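Office hours follow-up: a student asked to see two folded examples consecutively, so here they are.
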Amino acid sequence: MPWRFVPLGLLLLLLALGYALGWHEHLSLSALMASRTALHAKIEAHPLLATAGFALVYAVATAAAFPAAALLTIAAGFLFGWLLGGTLVLIAATTGATVLFLAARTAFGDFLRRRVGGRAAQLAKGFEQDAFGYLLVLRLAPIFPFWIVNIVPAFFHVSLRTFIAATTVGILPATYAYAYLGQGLESVLISAAAAGREVEPSDLVTGELTLSLAALATVAALALVAKRSCKASRPDRVEMRERK
């Protein structure tokens, strides 16, 4: 039915509109620094409206797969502090990711599941059996784009509850880490301006932070492997008991 493509189509239209209007050109740390006085004044004058508005913008950007997650998370820490900013991002990112997941599942989930077979079907079954573990590893690993991990589970029988839980837990470390970086952004930008250069989000993300996130993903992956190994060994144990 054509109606199943409507939600995903609206998100793609929103993404195209954002690029057409040049929103991506204003997403930079230098632009944030230039408008920091006005932004802080608005937050002080309308704290509830400002926090709700930021969360809405973040959720919409995530749902439309707009490539601004790292910058907006840093901006959250810069504008609201690492704790409040990180919490806003955690809620908004999970909400936007869920919207994209549901839109993709509505459009393609059943269609693709009916047509996969062979090795692809086996991989799908394995993913579905340990959906939380797989999603947690994908969320923690710093090598996978956020929007891809929002869409991939839509092609499997992943429950909405599992998706939300794995997303919330998986993005938590990086969210608060980036928000903490944002809280100290002003001093970094002032130093860069004195040196005559602009700072990019990649300048703030240290190698130590990337390695830490990769280590968390590795630990989650090892736990998943151990869990699957235990499951695989159970039939053998049952068979040995029956023989005895």
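And the second, which I mentioned at the end of office hours:
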Amino acid sequence: MTKLAKRLYEHLKRTALLPRGTHVLVACSGGPDSLALLLLLVELAPMLHLDVSAAHYDHGLRGAASQADAAFVAAFCAVRGIPCRMGRAPAGSIAAADASVETAARAQRYAFLEAVRQAAGADVVCTAHHADDQAETVLMHLLRGTGLDGLAGIPSRDDARHLVRPLLPLRKAELVAYCAQRGVTPRHDATNDVPDGLRNRVRLEL
């Protein structure tokens, strides 16, 4: 067992986030965070008796890069025998939504993940939010003004939406290093490098 998998195993045992026998559906974008989550849960599956599958949603917002991400995730899972469901946003649906692109994309992605969870008979959807995301979220809440709920940040589970976030104790750099250790080269979303939204400005500049 790798050191990071051992740390995650101890966290999951302590918190009972993923009880033995859980069928987990991992939301996988192809980036380092979600690839690390998928690989870690596959590594821990024999010990926790997990049934691990994956899902990828192509928002169709980055042209050929989006398609390449989808193809990468499909191939990554196929090589490792991980069941994977693929989805794609209808052309123009996100841009035409009565909301920001980020909000509309998130809503479509979570609706897809919940539909796949039900179809696959999975117990929960696992997302790859980590400690750096948590810090960014708390800072964003402080900048906007918040009460105690906002200071609590991202919860480790959201029972109403069947979501679990196992990686909150782990740092981004650890996940990147784990991918490298496993010989995996994740996809890179260049939109994360542009400080055009509050989260990206907090991440890149604050």
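Two things to take away from it. The mean pLDDT is 88. The beta strands are 23-27, 51-58, 84-88, 124-126, 157-158, 163-164.
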